[in-house]
């Protein structure tokens, strides 16, 4: 290893080493003062005398807590914080030029204000753990980098691995990542995409569902139930009438994706997408409750549906209802009668799945569909 040219550290090195220590060993709940830092053996050579240390910290705070015009940033954007700096420039400080304003500011209550809170770090790590485009090994490495560079020694580390069930992957992770990237680009630029849609055959191989590619206007990318979906519109002509309904596509079943009509040299982003207002059943603004009324990402228009919860041993269990509808269901009329907003197609299949726990009361059209499916099931499985 090369030796230093001088035993005296440069101003830059002094600032860098102190900053490095503060990032890893301080936060808003764990502050330090000059005497604490002098007890750290490897920091001694970088701290210098009292005046040098004071100037170093003040210069760091001025540089990291202000913009290019030397205006102090809002407090939430500060990085180097200590009591005297907060009193002078903070919201609770005073603008009056007192005796302290002409002297060196004492360095007490010093800490590094991290860009990400621990709750935000937890959200990042949770997203990595449940990512469908990243291997467990790559995820673990990324989590280690996040914990090493974005947290302190006080960060309560959690699980780095979650045992995953074996889920069939219909596309390579690399292609999935490219699909998501291109779709997001098209959404941002409000242009259409074209792709070939696939499904499995009896040989357990992917094959195109139809010969021609599908062209759609993309609007929302949704992660739900371990898969990515695209909310879009495929404009069609049915009986000489143009139909523009919302459709939902699984991203892992898309291939050969492109943005038709795109010419970067001429600055043409592609074919303009249909405006949201022209698409039937498409939400104009995204709602995090979308999946609660579109179970299993069914895409027909949700309607009000009245259900009766079946009592078992004089007790009704609402856990399964909450698992699917959250707290969006409401009680109406008699006890154990609830109302939900749900896709009719999804409700028919859901009601059959929980036929021992729930009964569809209204609307009559959905009740008849459930009854018809039940009749066909009886014909298939009933006594001969």
TrEMBL record:
Residues 178-235 form the WYL domain. Signal peptide: none annotated. It comes from the Bacteria. The lineage of its organism: Bacteria, Bacillati, Bacillota, Clostridia, Lachnospirales. Residues 345-377 form the WCX domain. This is WYL domain-containing protein.
């Amino acid at each position: 290893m090369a030796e230093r040219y001088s035993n005296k550290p440069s101003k830059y090195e002094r600032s860098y080493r102190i900053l490095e220590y503060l990032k890893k060993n301080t936060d808003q709940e764990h502050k330090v003062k000059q005497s604490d830092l002098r007890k750290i053996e490897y920091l001694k050579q970088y701290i210098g005398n009292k005046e040098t240390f004071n100037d170093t910290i003040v210069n760091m705070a001025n540089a990291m807590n202000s913009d290019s015009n030397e205006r102090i940033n809002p407090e939430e954007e500060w990085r180097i914080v200590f009591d005297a700096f907060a009193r002078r420039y903070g919201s609770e400080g005073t603008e009056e030029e007192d005796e302290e304003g002409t002297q060196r500011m004492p360095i007490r209550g010093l800490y590094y204000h991290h860009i990400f809170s621990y709750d935000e770090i937890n959200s990042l790590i949770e997203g990595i753990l449940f990512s469908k485009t990243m291997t467990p090994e790559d995820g673990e490495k990324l989590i280690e980098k996040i914990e090493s560079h974005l947290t302190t020694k006080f960060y309560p580390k959690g699980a780095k691995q979650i045992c995953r069930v074996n889920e069939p992957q219909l596309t390579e992770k690399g292609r999935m990542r490219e699909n998501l990237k291109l779709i997001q680009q098209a959404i941002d630029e409000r242009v259409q995409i074209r792709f070939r849609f696939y499904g499995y055959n009896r040989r357990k191989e992917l094959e195109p569902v139809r010969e021609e590619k599908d062209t759609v206007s993309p609007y929302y990318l949704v992660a739900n139930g371990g898969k990515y979906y695209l909310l879009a519109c495929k404009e069609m002509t049915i009986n000489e009438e143009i139909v523009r309904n919302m459709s939902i596509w699984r991203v892992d079943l898309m291939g050969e994706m492109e943005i038709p009509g795109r010419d970067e040299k001429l600055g043409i982003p592609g074919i303009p997408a249909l405006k949201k207002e022209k698409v039937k059943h498409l939400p104009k603004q995204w709602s995090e409750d979308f999946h609660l009324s579109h179970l299993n990402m069914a895409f027909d228009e949700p309607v009000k549906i009245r259900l009766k919860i079946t009592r078992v041993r004089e007790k009704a269990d609402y856990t399964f209802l909450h698992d699917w509808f959250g707290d969006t269901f409401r009680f109406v009329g008699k006890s154990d009668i609830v109302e939900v907003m749900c896709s009719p197609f999804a409700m028919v299949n859901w009601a059959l799945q929980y036929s021992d726990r729930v009964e569809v009361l209204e609307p009559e059209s959905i009740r008849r569909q459930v009854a018809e499916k039940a009749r066909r099931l009886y014909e298939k499985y009933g006594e001969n």
